[in-house]
Write a structure and sequence with these properties.
By secondary structure, the chain is mainly alpha-helical. It contains two helices and two strands; from the N terminus they run ββαα. The chain has a two-stranded antiparallel ribbon with strand order 1-2.
Length: about 70
């Protein structure tokens, strides 16, 4: 991969990937996946809690009478 800054277009550089960069990207990728999984789990838990709060059954036995008494 070639790289050149705007002010040094006549002096392009060659980027060579090494083991250190592979190690860092591997570590960051793993951490990113773990963090994203935690965010997704939290989002799903909030969504389910909201759904249960909003759409739970209503206890209306007092209004319409409960024939068990």
């Amino acid at each position: 991969m070639y790289s050149a800054a705007y002010h040094s277009i006549d002096r392009s550089t060659v980027f060579r990937r090494g083991k250190w960069l592979d190690y860092l990207l591997g570590e960051l990728h793993e951490r990113t996946e773990q963090r994203q999984a935690a965010i997704n789990a939290d989002r799903e838990a909030r969504r389910q809690a909201h759904h249960l709060k909003r759409f739970r059954p209503i206890d209306d036995s007092e209004s319409f009478g409960d024939n068990k008494a």
